[in-house]
């Protein structure tokens, strides 16, 4: 009984619980759903009340003890960067107010119809982790590490103002961290506090999950480091492990969570799509436990979730993007997956299974799981969609496809720096074929009447490219031009 009481006290001391009352059913849903942890919590339910009031002073003391345990057992170390990857280093200066930018020598001329306004982006050269960069931890449980996609979001803005008197331009620059609750928590502590909980040795990752949950009420940080989007005249920062953060476009101040008036309480895709004609916002959310993937449609005014559906996948596929056409929603179910049971069994949390199946689903805008028409395609990893549109009986999906995945990074147990250095080199330079991890522009034509699939590269395979974009007015419609970033694999691995 004594050991159970101690464990119950630790469970009850989460800093972020909405009240001093601990509900074990809520804990079961939010914790790691391994058979061991579920049995442990269910045993506690037999001997302890379902609701236990814990005095605030006891809760504070408990958190202090757990913090002391973490500080004594876990050592934070910086992850190394190749010299050529210095652009991945975080910006270490957050401005208090916008500053003027003086334009140097300008070649050519600014077009007469260039519009005044603001340009805002989230990722400049990657996420912007606090305290010097991405971390790993070393402990008796093993090693766990941040993935290269982790770290806080920091917004960068350029304000362009044209003076009517003489036609000259004033340019202001500003930056500001996206102040999620977890960002504010670590800033307040003024040191790395959340334990990395994605990559590493299984015992270390599981320990990080549990200890983060006990101390912060969350198993990992809310990142908000991937994209900025607009809907109904409001602006949001987003990464798909949490809901969007509303942003003041003039000050870059974080205004809080956007849950569509409480109707969306799960992760939210980094790349929502505005549906053509209707102007509705099509979203999705991937979660580690069932339902693994839900799709939603938000009203044009942004106030109502008009449709929500569980796609009923049988795995948690790490789907980063979603497609839309005039009538359909395009869903990618590819073999990069997140599996907590695999983690508890000693494997990696995130894994690309090159032998796994890959398929694309076409669902009517207000459809349901049974109305999705699935098309089997060649196994691949695709993070970003260029565009989707309808062409007679075919739904055309275009994106950037690779044969493997750069996420989470090295195969389990390998050195991350060595792995990336090898993967980025072409075969003739002593590396592996970069097509296995780098992306090429690709097209799938899916015939909704016959079920036929046609696949092809849009361009040659000579150049790797990703992060595609089009004129947003053509989202979901047939378009002529697309733009991508071209990857220099040799330059990326230079020492």
Largest sheet: 4 strands, antiparallel
Oligomer: single chain
Derived from helix and strand composition plus strand pairing, the structural class reads alpha+beta
Span of the ends, CA to CA: 57 Å
- Report the mean per-residue pLDDT as an integer: 83
Helix content: 10-25%
Tally of contiguous helical segments: 9
Q: What coarse outline follows from CA principal-axis ratios?
A: globular
SS elements, strand count: 30
Strand content: 25-35%
Q: Strand arrangement, largest sheet?
A: 3-6-7-10
Radius of gyration: 24 Å
Contiguous runs where pLDDT drops below 50 for at least 5 residues:
1-52
How do you describe this structure in short?
The protein has 495 residues and is α+β, with helices and mostly antiparallel strands.
Describe the fold and architecture:
The chain starts with a helix and ends with a helix. It has 9 helices and 30 strands. It has helices at residues 2-11, 24-30, 35-47, 56-73, 181-189, 202-216, 340-344, 416-423, 489-492, and strands at residues 21-23, 51-53, 75-78, 99-101, 117-121, 135-139, 142-145, 154-162, 169-177, 199-200, 227-231, 234-238, 245-247, 254-257, 273-274, 281-286, 293-298, 305-310, 323-324, 328-333, 336-338, 350-352, 358-364, 373-377, 381-391, 394-402, 440-447, 453-457, 464-469, 483-487. The strands form 9 sheets. It has a 4-stranded antiparallel beta sheet. The protein is globular. The chain is of the alpha+beta class.
Main attributes?
alpha+beta; 495 residues; 30 strands; single chain; 4-stranded antiparallel beta sheet; disordered N terminus; 31% strand
